[in-house]
Amino acid sequence: MQETVSVSEVSETSEGEVTARFADYPFRGSLLKDIQAAGYETPLPIQAACIPHALEGKDLIGLAQTGTGKTAAFALPIIERVAATAEMGALVLTPTRELAQQVSGMFAELGRSSGIRVATVVGGIPIEKDWKALVSWPNVLVATPGRLIDHIQSGNVSLKDIKVLVIDEADRMHDMGFLPQIERILRELPRERQTLMFTATMPQDVEQIVQRNMRSPLILSVGRRSAPAERAQQQLFDTHESDKTPLLLSLLRETQGRVLVFVRTKLGVDRLARAVSPRHRGVARLHSNRAQAERDEALAGFREGRYRILIATDVAARGLDIADIEHVINYDFPQSPDDYVHRIGRTARVDATGLATSFVTRAERRFLPALERLVGTPLPLTPSPVTGGHSPRVAEGGRPSRRRGQRRGSSRRSPARAASGR
Fold first, then answer.
1. Rounded to two decimals, what is the model's pTM?
2. Please, where are the H alpha helices in 83-164?
3. Would you state the pLDDT for residue 363?
4. What pLDDT does 31 receive?
5. In DSSP terms, which residues pair with 341 in a beta bridge?
6. What's the topology of domain 232-420?
7. What is 3-222's CATH number?
């Protein structure tokens, strides 16, 4: 039987006192040292909810919006538990290579002084390169499901000593068709283990895995399930397919910081990047057909500021923690409401604010009712300020010039002002 508990009910210590700082948890000194070096002082809600129960060895499901600090919520208890062990005691499964590398980076940062050894095995790179990581006596293994099964079948890895299993972004695993691989991996694990699952939504197939493989898990719900990032200002433009690129270019001119643009297909990413690059320096592409080294370079460049604009498929919609993304733009409107939530969750992460803009064509309007039911609020469409493939041209002196046939006093407003009504 599962028990759902809100954050207000679980953010207290066993003595009944609210845990206000990481220093209040019973962590080893080396771990507290790295927490302090990372600049962490006060746990975020999902961390305050999960860490005490994870330290007690309970199975749990962390339900929270994306960008709420879930990685540290499981990494810290795992470091505390397995840092002093010689065997591989923890397994973290993630849906994408990028998320696996991010999780590994978190373990490396927070477990440096505790002697944590992390191995990362993911698809997209020669499998021979995994061998060096696997023979380095890791006590934490971070993996994507398909590549881990390759190693299991080859006899390269044994999971018999795993004490803690983490399934990260479980709903994304479902969306990507990884649940059969998850079931295969679960059969290799000891029955006596702790299982932690983190997800933003709970599809029925994921619930069935929970019922078969978790022991009376505590469900810790933080915030409103499947809700968009609360600090993200949302605007939806009613537009035509032919006007999308001019509208995007107009928005890019008004944005100074990082911009993440979501496109439905890999071919669409490449085409849009070719259209944007001549007008804006610092454009990177991210999709699954790119080599792993190219994907790593695109993400690193975007994170470090060498690229201001990242054009990507949904491979970038889940789990990636890139600070200070000012603007997320759905160039192609997502067909799944959950994908909308996760896409715009790339901005306004943790305590930041941001802007989320979506282009909606006539054919895509049919996806709006399901999204509005999920988020619980109307999402009004604003007429696009760019029509006919043109945006207002700027004449000398900074005033928009009138095109032939346009009457005096009828100049158009910028997209941002059109959305805000100013």
1. 0.67
2. 97-110, 129-134, 145-154
3. 94
4. 97
5. none
6. Rossmann fold (3.40.50)
7. 3.40.50.300
